[in-house]
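G., before I forget:
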Amino acid sequence: MTPSNPELTVNRRASELFASYQRDIYRSTDRLFAGLMGFQWIAGIVFALWVSPLAWFGSVSRTHIHVWAAVVVGGIISLFPALLGLFRPGRTSTRYTIAVAQMLMGALLIHLTGGRLETHFHVFGSLAFLAFYRDWRVLIPATIVVALDHMLRGMFWPQSVYGVLVVSQWRWVEHAAWVIFEDVFLVVSCLRSVAEMRETAERTATLEQEIRTREQAEMDARNAWARNDGILDVALDCVVLMDESGRIVQFNPAAERTFGYAAAEAVGTPLDALVVPADQAGSQHEGLARYLGSGQMAVLNRRLELSAVRRSGETFPVEVAFAPISLEGSTMFAGYMRDITERRQSEAALAERMSLASLTAAVGLALTRSADSRTMLHHCAEALVQHLHGGLARIWTLDEDEPVLDLQASAGYYIGLDGPLVRVPVGRYAIGRIAAERRCRIDAAGNVDPQIGDPDWARRERMVSFAGYPLLLDGRLLGVMAIYADHTFSASALEAMTVVADGIALGLERRRGERELARYTRDLERAHKTERQNAEQLAKLVDQLRVTQGQAEAATRAKSDFLASMSHELRTPLNAIILYSELLQEEAGERGEAGSIPDLQKIQSAGKHLLALINGILDLSKIEAGKMTLSLERFEIRAMIDDLVDTVGPLVEQRGNVLTVSCAPGVGSMVADFMKTRQILLNLLSNAGKFTSDGAVTLHVQRAAMERREVIQFTVADTGVGMTAEQAGRIFDAFTQADVTTTRKYGGTGLGLAIVSRLCALMGGEVSVESRPGHGSSFVVRLPAEVVDEAGESARPAAMAGPA
Amino acid sequence: MWLAAAGTGLSALWKYDNAPGIGANAPTRWPNASVLVHTRGEPTLILLAHPQCSCTPASLAELAEVLARARTHARAYVLFLKPEGFSDAWVQSDLWKTAAAIPGVTLVRDDDGREARLFGSATSGQTLLYDGDGALRFSGGITGSRSHAGDNAGRRSLVALLSGTQAERAATDVFGCPLFASGI
């Protein structure tokens, strides 16, 4: 981030420039020394070739060792720093290496020239060259090399450096002192040069900062102008700048689009001559002059709505604001103008919508809150006049008995319900034709009904528009609504009147409906009164019936109680009769009184029949008395069937029948009253055996589904006498057999199947029969696989399960 | 490493420059076979030079210094070797001209090194001083090292002898090119 403090910025920049200068000097001096190294090397070789090209051995010569020394040693000394200067310029190591090498090259040259004092000037020249770096520290290694060279050579080969063989051991100090003497001047020179360089960097940085500041200021100014121009270019409002004389000096694109003039055409033209209507131009000019004279101007800094003129001559409304702009020595005026044509249109449309909404609301109130039809229509007519700015509004309704329209409401210029249009036959006049044609009519007021007796009325009252609407509901004519106005109706107003006409029609229909409803209400109230009287009588009858039913139920219970007690009382002596008749038969047999045995058998048979009858009656009465309870338990069906067959098999086979029993695989167990289930099957098998001779009796057991319940289905079929459909229909009634001859022929009480039916019903099952006379019968018993008693219990614990 | 290489190179160079040549085995009495003239009572100074030796200019410079500083006159010869097969122009080199410019010096062309051999000298720059009696008083070089002019023991001794004072040394190392490829 650029520091915000300019002084800090300048100092930092000066440091950068100073470092850059130093870097440039180091690099350029490195490259200078790279060349100098090469030059010195070559010069040394040339010098060696010139001074001592050959070493002679009598008549034999060869290259002098000085030449090789110049090539090899000079190359060693020169090439490495020269390469550093070329490829790694600017580095401290390069600089210091060059300094050492330059001094070593001096030592070599001094030697090659035989220690000539003149060659010592190479040392001083080299130091001066090294000062080109403007880095006094470089002089230190150079000076050290010189000092060491003189010290060592002074110790071992003094003549090679001092020209004499015997010298003081401190002679090198003298030489080094002279070198240091020069170093002092060079150091001072370097420091001054560095100071000047730093000063130059600071001046340059300051200058750059000034240039940047100036450039920034210029760029800010350009941006400000560009922003202003950009704002004016994209502004949606017209912006016009004028000078003191009212001449346009700037005309933005929005102004070009609005007024139709190009900026080039507008600039230089007085504003009042270009866009101000002629009747306002003078006042605008006077206003400018007044402002320039007094500083007062009524239109300044205010929003005004005025008129302006386009190039096409069209006048349109504009919103205008003028503001003075004070410049040095002059004043300009900025005019901001906005075309408000659309806004005006929107406002007018909004006002109309508000008026129409008010009309709809007023009509709605009239339709819902008026006490009667005529008041309702009167309020509607007044609303039409008020909100549509009508001169006259009238509403007619159709007579219910004849095709005539009766004037019901009138508002506006005439509020009286009189005149020639009080009763208008359908089809006559404009109103009647609207009713006859059932179409609205929008026309000029002067074209409507000149024959009503006052054709000049519309012209006199300046009515220009007429609108008439039939009042229709589901295509049924209810009346006509008409309105005159001194202006042309807009499309929205016509649409609103259509809605109002529909609303009035609905209102009329609602009023008619209300009248009908009132009449129906009265009729209903009368009917309700009659119904209430009938209901009271019915309630009395129901009470009587309930008493009668109670008496009947009590009688039934008394009957059942009687039968139960009587059967019990009868069974005791009957058992004695049966038992003693059996004993008497045995005794008669033993005494040889065979003649009395048939009579005794008849007594025993009659007793058993009577006992069975009594037992059946007892069971049936229990069931009907609601005293028969279920003893539910889970038992294996197959075991129950096997036990049953053992009991009933001899009875069935007694008449030469064949009993066949089959259980479907997986018939499993069921939850039911074991004894009652057994009794059902026992009764059915006994009957089958009784009514079949030399035939077949079958029992088939399987699991089945009935009304989404799993049931156990027992089918008992025989090939016996069979029944007619009529006999089968009453076979389950008590004391009923197929016909009266059956009892005589086959015996029985007529209670077995009735008990079967009751027991099936008691366990939630059913029994049905299919039979044809001479072809046997088939009884089907369906019992739930898990019978549930009235208490909702399914089965007793497993310990109480029936026999397996 | 670079510094070590440079130092080693310079050191080797310095060693070479300070390595003396083969010293003279000069006759102690003036050889009568010499073509050079020895005048009785007059010292005779002989400097044997190789005309192309780059080390010898320093010796000539020192010779000029000696002759200039000597208080007694001495006949001085500078003998330039002329091997067989070499032209006179090869002999009369810049060194010849330098020697010719020294006052009081007689230049002698030593064909095939006969005189050098006669005086037992094998190195350019070898300087011999015979006194007026023909006795050898000094034999050696008059430079401190190869090609290096300047004060040295040989020069000081010669100046002393020619000035009639006690010489510092009667023999010194001689630095210069060999006069013969395979010895004397």
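The first helix of chain A runs from residue 6 to 51. The longest strand of chain A covers residues 315-327.

More on Monday.
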